[in-house]
Amino acid sequence: MEVLLVVESWFGNTRTIADAIAQGLSQQGGRVQMLNVEDALAEVPAGVDLVVLGAPTHNRGLSTTATRQKAIAAGAKHGATGAQEWVDTVQLRDGVKVAVFDTVTSKSWFSGSAAKAAARTLARRGLAAAAETKSFTVRGLKGPLRPGQVNAAQSWGQHLARQ
Ligand SMILES: Cc1cc2nc3c(=O)[nH]c(=O)nc-3n(C[C@H](O)[C@H](O)[C@H](O)COP(=O)(O)O)c2cc1C
Hints:
By secondary structure, the protein is α/β, with parallel strands linked by helices. It has helices spanning 13-27, 65-73, 83-89, 114-124, 149-162; strands spanning 2-7, 31-36, 50-56, 97-104, 132-137. Residues 9-15, 56-60, 67, 70-71, 103-105, 111-112, 138, 141, 143 line the site of flavin mononucleotide (FMN).
C-alpha cells in the first residue's frame, strides 16, 4: 500500500503524531512518503492508495493566516500556508482513500477539530465523502502531547494499513 502522509505542524506535536502513524503504517507493510503541507502538491502522485492528512486545531478548525501569525508570535516555526489551502485545491483520483487526524487540547465540542473541518471541506468538494477522522490530545498551545498519544497514533497507523 502506497501512502502519502501530509502534515502541518507549528510546534512539532502533530509532526510527532505523524511520525508514529507512519511507523504503524510501515509495520503493516505500508510504504509512506511524508510531506510538509507546504511542500505537498495539489496533484497526488499516481499509485497512492491512501492519503493521510494531519493538522493542529486552531480556533476550532483549520489554521488561517491570522492563527498562524499567533502561533509564530508564540514561538512556532515560520510558515505561510496550512492544510486548509491544500484541501481547497487537492485533486484525488477515484478510489484513493483519505484519513484525517488533528491535535486538540481536549476531545470535547469546545475544542473543535481540524480533522473534521478538513473532512467537511473534502466532502463539500465531492472528494473522500467517508474520510475517517481521529484526534490526538496535547496539554496546551505548544504541547506536549498527553501520555499515550504516540502509542495511540502508532496503533491508528496499523489500523489504517489493515483497512
Ligand atoms: C492560534 C491558535 C488557536 C488555537 N485554537 C485551538 C482550538 O480552538 N482548539 C484546540 O483544541 N486547540 C487549539 N489550539 C492549540 C492547538 O491544538 C495546539 O497548538 C496544537 O495541537 C499543537 O500542534 P503543533 O505542535 O503540531 O502545532 C490553538 C493554537 C493556536 C496557536
